[in-house]
């Protein structure tokens, strides 16, 4: 059975780091989604995201799409199929409305990880260290979506596997266990 690890949580919590680890250690491909936000330092078009403008974004056909802060984001079932063509286990980073859409469509095929940290000040520090544009950091921290995603939404609690990403070694041990479990079942 094809399966997908869906990763959600606030900005700076480690979603991309988790997805990169799964890719590098286990060749678990990430479903590449589309966004209208500007590219950050170190990001690559077609790998991190497909970077769009409002016009090109309008023309795409999405399974689900959202506005997050000042920008648009969207994902297609075709992109998921492309990842599954490579490996029957894929990963996907989406915010919580996206999580709901995928849980409704794919049910048991989804393993949902909600990432968090003990102290939210850690998030700001990580965004600065990541080298994000200071203005973009302020805009993100002030957005309603960022504030919403600081806490797991009650309606997703049943399906979520909550993972505290404070210590990377512990996170990696947890991920190794999850991959083993999903590969065996
Ligand atoms: N619903 C949905 N959310 C997405 C998609 N792509 C990215 N996101 C979410 O958009 C939010 C903002 O992503 P990004 O600007 O890369 O910021 P980051 O959280 O700091 O890495 C994150 O919560 C992502 O999970 C998508 O295709 N659909
Ligand atoms: N457990 C951790 N401890 C310390 N730094 C981390 C940890 N996990 C991720 N980071 C760093 O925090 C920053 C934000 O991580 P990232 O994966 O880009 O977050 P997100 O995709 O959720 O916005 C990156 O610079 C990353 O290297």
From TrEMBL:
InterPro entries: GK/Ca_channel_bsu, Guanylate_kin-like_dom, P-loop_NTPase. This is Guanylate kinase. Signal peptide: none annotated. It catalyses: GMP + ATP = GDP + ADP. It comes from Lactobacillus colini. Its EC number is 2.7.4.8. SMART domains: GuKc (SM00072). It comes from the Bacteria.
